[in-house]
């Protein structure tokens, strides 16, 4: 048996939506973008949502449009795109440590990293679980800092019943591994109309009105850039997929939670630390990650893959140990011991809504066998 790390759930509804866009002639910045934005904003509980070509673009726009040019505190335990967006927006990344249980940024360590040059905190809601937002908001208010939410991995997750991406400027990914997908693509959410309008212009070459909107203007050919912008737009084809995926999100997240609950009950091994769901959170398990102890992580992952369980690692090396950041920011990098401990022990197991009972049990049995072999427990 072979169990993929993740699988998308797409059906005839997405196919019909794509065909409808093709027939309409509006292949970018059209009505389907507006519909996806409106429905996503309503789902998250914010005033505005903007379709973009990636979460990375959303993160960069959130920083740049907010005028952040100083230090941005963020976790090193994240995909490198989080830090890349800080650098590309012209700001300086400052890496903070994480909590062992949740793998989310540690508010206590954030406080230790704040300097007069700090302008923002970027939280990364790891693997489907929100950060401790009340403590982070308190710090931000105390030091007059902006908050940016990298919610790429936590679409539909909540903290104290409030959805991620609604606490500040939210940034989401629709990459195929995420809780919903458009293939490629992202979304930015905000309650700030001024910020939303600026980002909308920046993402379309700095022009305040897109092609579809200009069709209703007196001079539709008039195109004037207010900013030196980018082309970060999402195509209407991808937006149409997103509309259909959003309808399925809660059901797909519920299935992820059911699978995670089953694994948590069955994976009772001394060599494993299981994922922890904070009592304030609703975890949506974009990834199901464990931490291995007493056995070599590499041998464990390869042993599972040999059995067809396509386990992986998210994330190693952490950003502060990657070549560019280790050299460029080495003077400001210190004491990230929990990050490095987690990065050496974390393992991502297959997780997607369509996992069957047979596949889950095969995965559990394979983990048991690999651990017995590596720890030399009797079989």
Major sheet strand order: 1-9-8-5-4-2-3
Q: What name does CATH use for the topology of the largest domain?
A: Aspartate Aminotransferase, domain 2
Strand tally: 13
Order of helices and strands: HHEHEHEHEHEEEEEHHHEEEHHHEH
CATH structural class of the largest domain: Alpha Beta
Beta content: 5-15%
The percent of residues in helical segments reads 40-55%
- Integer tally of domains: 2
Q: Which word captures the global form? A: globular
Terminus-to-terminus distance: 21 Å
Structural class: alpha/beta
The average pLDDT score comes to 95
Task: Give me the number of helical elements.
Answer: 13
The CATH fourth-level homologous superfamily of the largest domain: Type I PLP-dependent aspartate aminotransferase-like (Major domain)
Structure write-up:
By secondary structure, this protein is an alpha/beta fold. It has 2 domains: about 10-250, 3-Layer(aba) Sandwich (Aspartate Aminotransferase, domain 2), CATH 3.40.640.10; about 250-375, Alpha-Beta Complex (Aspartate Aminotransferase, domain 1), CATH 3.90.1150.10. It is about 40% helix and about 15% strand. A 7-stranded mixed beta sheet has the order 1-9-8-5-4-2-3, with helices on both faces. The protein has a 3-stranded antiparallel beta sheet with strand order 7-6-11, with no helix packed on it. α6 links the parallel β4 and β5. The longest helix is centred in the middle third of the chain and has 31 residues, at about 235-265. The radius of gyration is 21 Å and the shape is globular.
